[in-house]
Specification:
alpha/beta; seven-stranded mixed beta sheet; 7 strands
Length: 198
């Protein structure tokens, strides 16, 4: 319940104050659950993606925030996962047909540019066979960049949803570094292309 209440409130705020737009809804898989991978430029990002994608997403949140009682309570209400549980809990949810979301950069960008990617999204895709849905958030850095506490109103925010990426192992059961590197590069390239497309 908390998730959907927050989504409705976020949707109202985004539409009223930020001229919110979404492109690529047709790319969301209809016959399977999925992994959301997006660029990370603002504290607002999970709320923005949560509004853009009309399906519930279980987000992975940094373990850092779980050391604060309020954040811990808030994330638990939203069924968010600590990044320390990526390999087990996230796989369990994906295999139970739930959607999982994460930010492969691991933390918010300092200047709005795309940083290096960690391998979590590719690992989950290889382990479960679920597609990765790449997403790009534009405008959120200008609204609420890292280090700021009050958003700038009436600036546009847009989300672009890319075509799903399927990462499947070929014969071998072991997921080695080569698989993970190639998969991570494929996800990052998709997000970079959408960012550079304007």
């Amino acid at each position: 319940m908390w998730y959907w209440v927050l989504r409705v409130l976020s949707k109202l705020i985004l539409r009223i104050f930020f001229n919110f737009k979404v492109a690529g809804l047709e790319n969301i898989p209809k016959k399977t659950n999925f992994i959301v991978a997006a660029n990370h430029v603002s504290f607002l990002d999970p709320f923005i993606i949560g509004v853009a994608i009309p399906k519930r997403i279980n987000w992975l949140a940094s373990r850092f925030f779980y050391s604060y009682a309020w954040f811990k309570w808030f994330f638990r209400k939203l069924d968010a996962l600590s990044t320390g549980n990526v390999s087990e809990r996230a796989v369990f949810l994906l295999e139970a047909n739930k959607n999982v979301g994460l930010f492969p950069e691991g933390c918010r960008s300092h200047d709005g540019s795309l940083g290096g990617f960690r391998r979590g999204a590719a690992l989950l895709a290889f382990k479960t066979g679920r597609p990765v849905v790449p997403c790009v958030i534009k405008g959120a850095y200008e609204v609420l960049p890292r280090g700021k506490f009050f958003p700038k109103l009436f600036l546009p925010i847009e989300v672009k949803i890319g075509k799903p990426i399927y990462l499947l192992k070929e014969f071998e059961k072991k997921i080695d570094d080569v698989y993970l590197q190639k998969g991570t590069s494929k996800i990052k390239s998709s997000i970079e292309e959408m960012l550079n497309a304007g």
